[in-house]
User: Fold this.
Amino acid sequence: MLHEADLRAGLPVGSLGVELHYFDSLDSSNAEAGRLAGRNAPAGTLVVADEQRQGRGRHGRRWLTPAGAGLAFSLLLRPARKQATGPGGYGLIGALAVAEGLDGLGLQPSIKWPNDVLLAERKVSGVLAEAAWMGDELAYVVLGIGVNVRSGSVPEVESLDFPATYVEREVGGPVDRTGLLLAILQGVDRWHERLGHPELLATWESRLAFRGNLVELEDGKTSVRGTLLGLTQDGRLRLALNAGQVLELDAGVYHLRPV
Ligand code: BTN
Assistant:
């Protein structure tokens, strides 16, 4: 069990966790945060689930969160000012905050574009930012973060499309899930204030996994191979093809894997 009382005692973290909705078991913390948004919950509302029965992953995949094994939480964020950027920037914040939280445990995480956090080239965390629009303005974003902390949080190897690991395996001992969650919230709060700032992208890019390596990107229908160069100013991936051409690819569509 996550200890709700310990969590409450550490909140709020800056502007986050002003309201906490904690569940021993829930369909999906992203789904619940969306329902709360519809009932005018305040910005910074935090939904935490010890177990998720229908956790959502990117590209319509499932995300496994058995009771007692991982971290699954979502933040309701509302843009402070009129914002034309999509939810992509929020995904960057989530991944960076997880990576910095893992730094605090003495680990060396990297980020696989667009927002998977890796330890020793295995996925330890996924981020799902889901946006709601009012016309062409962003009404709110639900930033959902899942972290594999204990062994039970890693799905069966056959169901994985990328190798996975869990934090306790990499640390080599027990990890306090509440402490890790609060550390991640600190990072989200700090970077949220710098959304759209070049420093965010530069810091994110400094952690980019497989940079300079040959990678393959596929969108379900086609695939392309090239050398991963880095990011554009707006967070697209720069890929150098053999012929010398440089492609700029949007997040949200592609799966990336090293060759
Ligand atoms: C991915 O596919 O890598 C993204 C996974 C995101 C999972 C988290 S767990 C908390 C939040 N609630 C959900 O239903 N999904 C996200």
In short: The first helix runs from residue 4 to 9. The first strand starts at residue 20 and ends at 26. The mean pLDDT is 93. The chain is about 25% helix and 35% strand.
